[in-house]
Amino acid sequence: MRILHTGDWHLGRTLLGADLLGHQAAFCDFLVETVRARSVDLVVVAGDVFDRAIPPVDAVRMLSLTLERLSETATVVLTPGNHDSAARLGFGAGVMHDRVRILAEPGGVGTPVLLADEAGPVAVHGIPYLHPDLTRYALAAVPDEPLARSHQAVVGAAMERVRADLATRPGTRSVVVAHAFVGGAEPSDSEQDIRVGGVDMVAASVFDGIDYVALGHLHGPQRVGPGDRIRYAGSPLAFSFGERHQRKSVTVVDLAPDGSVTVELVPTPVPRRLVDVRTTIDAIESGAHHADADAWVRVAVTDTVHPERMYARVKAHFPHALAITHEPADRPERQAARAVTATSDPVEVAADFVAFATGAAPDDDDRAVLTEAYEAAVLAMHDDRGR
Predict the structure, then answer these.
(1) Of 86, 199, 284, 324, which one is least surrounded by beta carbons within 10 A?
(2) Rounded to two decimals, what is the model's pTM?
């Protein structure tokens, strides 16, 4: 069986204010063409289909059209991620035709999508993003005895249900589609923090015994552990300058009759390169960086004195510049203050504020309070997404 593994589309996302929807549409066209050209049997989308719980209308239309086109030649299985609203993404899942299956319910993790090829049956189990505080009761083996408050506990409980189902299907090959941060993988700087109790990871061993594990959440394509059995497909586009060196792709997996896998990474289209430029205004105006004029650029102008009309002069040479700052090369002390960005650790930002306001860094007890407050805010946000 040939499987195409993708995820983390984040439809509706922007990059430092730049609209990505047109580039995401180009990816969707590429995806449909790849599925058709390579005779893919199954497409799995491992969460974060949308960038936020209530996505733009154009993003919803794009997903609808893409699923319609994909399902003409392949079965499609989706699971929600931490950015999606499971309730909204899963709306109508019960009445969709067999070629499009949205596995959004935590309580349904033990019920697979069943497919077959000439070598026999394949069971595809979906594990949506499981926030421990929202699922530790629903996944508990004993009513009123909640699981531990951790990602390891809830994903482990979900996998126990998966294994229990597979035990009733001898000879069936297994695929698990999950949205989680698995230990041993390398994060990027644009994934949302999912810590609970200060921990955001699960052990790779929780997926032992599964033929192929299609992961979502981390944006860099990578394997977890030895071999290709557990993989992140990564995001199809770069969503931060920290991802500018990643080679984005989709993962084509051939699942053999004995359950072994072979993997090919198919590069996705690069709509516009991301480039960092750190130089003087004279160097920019000399044309030294002309080759990067068509790229999305983050520019740091290093002149000692702030150049006149700096922004306009930079934009004249870099029309697609997304960030322009003045960072004098001879004044490193100006960089002492840590900038707060969308990818900053919220607990560390709060700790910096405590240090600024009180003159002393927070101790372990203070940090525990800050962490608890942050996690409560994240829980409230996810609870609202589920409504």
Answers:
(1) 199
(2) 0.83
